[in-house]
Amino acid sequence: xxxxxxxxxxxxxxxxxxxxxxxxxxxxxxxxxxxxxxxxxxxxxxxxxxxxxxxxxxxxxxxxxxxxxxxxxxxxxxxxxxxxxxxxxxxxxxxxxxxxxxxxxxxxxxxxxxxxxxxxxxxxxxxxxxxxxxxxxxxxxxxxxxxxxxxxxxxxxxxxxxxxxxxxxxxxxxxxxxxxxxxxxxxxxxxxxxxxxxxxxxxxxxxxxxxxxxxxxxxxxxxxxxxxxxxxxxxxxxxxx
Length: 241
What we know:
Number of helices: 7
Helix content: over 70%
Strand order of the largest sheet: 1-2
Number of strands: 2
CATH architecture: Up-down Bundle
Largest sheet: 2 strands, antiparallel
């Protein structure tokens, strides 16, 4: 890693900490702007960003402990960079992201429970299967774990396109376009994660591409996603839906 790559990772993580910290406060304050039925969804948005802020602080700390920039040269300190913080974060936040999307739909209780449980379980399994390939294996073994993680990921995409797609049609017409944009954001942003996962196998600098790639997608998938959730909640509150 050269000094340009060092600064790129450093600044990306620093920006993410600021973005998630600000998002945490914003979503928490905006709970008063929506009806009680949607306060839980905004609480989850705030909780997701709070958890991620904490883990990015730990990632930042680990990065600064593992690498030093001195006289234009990047020096390895001998301490290992802990990439497991990302997977601990995803194990907690990815299920919550899907749950808040289900809650904002305000479906019948049984359907909310069913969709929430299956999506939460699939997302947790996806993260757990992705961890060994990211941190413990290389080469062909990494591809095997990637394929295994893609199974629950494919189910989530299917549910977003078809299962949740049918639920969106039951929403008030004024918010249906917003729901479709939010669903598209989930599909596109989440599809970048498996791409970043295999970038090292395609010849890209493993550490830099993973850290910058995951950081960028995290901001889109959590902060931007949360803003769309807030707008939907506000619109539905205004019409009493």
